[in-house]
Specification:
Two copies of one chain form a homodimer. Chain A is an all-alpha fold and 195 residues long. Chain A has two domains: 1-52, Arc Repressor Mutant, subunit A (Orthogonal Bundle); 55-192, Tetracycline Repressor, domain 2. Chain A is 70% helix and 0% strand. Chain A has helices at 9-27, 34-41, 55-75, 82-100, 102-110, 117-144, 152-164, 166-169, 178-192. The longest helix of chain A is centred in the last third of the chain and has 28 residues, at 117-144. Chain A is elongated, with a radius of gyration of 20 Å. Chain A binds a DNA duplex (18 and 18 nucleotides) through loops.
Chain lengths: 195, 195
DNA sequence: GTCTATAGACTGATAGAC
DNA sequence: GTCTATCAGTCTATAGAC
């Protein structure tokens, strides 16, 4: 398993994605140059093309990895029994997961228009699958009679917007802990669906 | 009041802002060139600088005009009697106002990071003033005992995120009218604050 | 008020040396 | 695997003609 001197592919690859994530989140995809990313990693611009086909693919890979993480994490999240427990699990999971990776979340929401058409469609499909998870919970809750919602699809979108909104104002070390925030948001979610 | 041939300052100025608004919303501030804006208006790139100091000011002017419109429109909005009527008026106003100008809303949320520090501070101050309007309503509602909210500031942010979220999915001519959407969202707002 | 022309700098991506 | 050098194109903003 000896490795050539100067061979850092297993280190540089992740570093490229990390640097791109941070820079895209801060300045926006279009405003960041490949040279900036390279400088952050500590290589020359040309070297980046060993790790990504082009700038567009770099963005797409970041967004896809984020959505995959999200779906995989929700899949293994403990959900409790009954639709109401499911809903609570979803609300707390969503806030926790999103607060843990603000840069990726920011990019996933803000840079959709910088994706090529086919890349956009792929990310959009993953997003819909995630929304579908909440939608299914709400439908189950309605079937069980534990929630009231005149339009499930609309309630789905409203709740996700509300929960994701935490990322726009929450600051680490602020007035409230993540758990305290989640408690209050869960109360609001419950109220919004008449539970 | 005779006007020189070729003098279109009163027409071209607004057209520049309209074109910039549409293009920034579609492609993002950093991805749009002054040449693109000029082409949309029907002039050469150099002529744009008769109407804006630079690209940054163009963005700032659009965002400031949007926030000024928002605050002015809310100021003259009929609000009814009591905190609960106020809250309903705010929810319906917010949805209606934001759905009427999706491009400006999109830019006001997505392009904050492309503002210079002082321009950012100015826009942020206007945004806080708008948030303060809802916050005051919620505090009044709590004082009247008609709503329940463990943390007013947090409820403010949650409700604004939820209401603004309509813009991300609403499509003209879709399944629901604006009024029907507003009805359902008002129900959710009321539930979220325990009214 | 708008044009053309241009400055000076930056862009994404590639080729070839090591 | 990374570097240097470079291509061909883009960018914002300005100067000066009309």
């Amino acid at each position: 398993m000896a490795r050539k001197t100067g061979s850092h592919s297993d280190i540089t690859g992740p570093k490229v994605r990390e640097a791109a994530l941070a820079l895209f989140a801060q300045h926006g995809f279009a405003a960041v140059s490949m040279r900036q990313i390279a400088a952050e990693v500590g290589v020359q611009a040309g070297a980046l093309y060993l790790y990504t086909k082009d700038k567009q693919s770099l963005l797409y890979d970041l967004m896809q990895a984020h959505m995959d993480d999200l779906l995989a994490a929700w899949e293994v999240e403990p959900k409790g029994d009954g639709a109401l427990a499911h809903l609570e699990a979803f609300a707390r999971f969503h806030i926790r997961f999103h607060l843990e990776r603000p840069d990726a979340v920011f990019i996933a929401y803000m840079e959709l228009r910088n994706l090529s058409d086919e890349n956009f469609a792929a990310i959009e499909a993953l997003r819909r699958r995630y929304e579908g998870e909440l939608e299914a919970i709400l439908r189950a809750g309605q079937a069980e009679g534990v929630i009231t919602a005149p339009d499930i699809r609309l309630t789905t979108m409203a709740l996700i917007a509300m929960l994701t909104g935490v990322n726009t104002w929450y600051r680490e070390g602020g007035r409230l802990s993540r758990d305290a925030v989640a408690d209050i948001y869960w109360d609001m979610v419950r109220g919004a669906v008449g539970a």
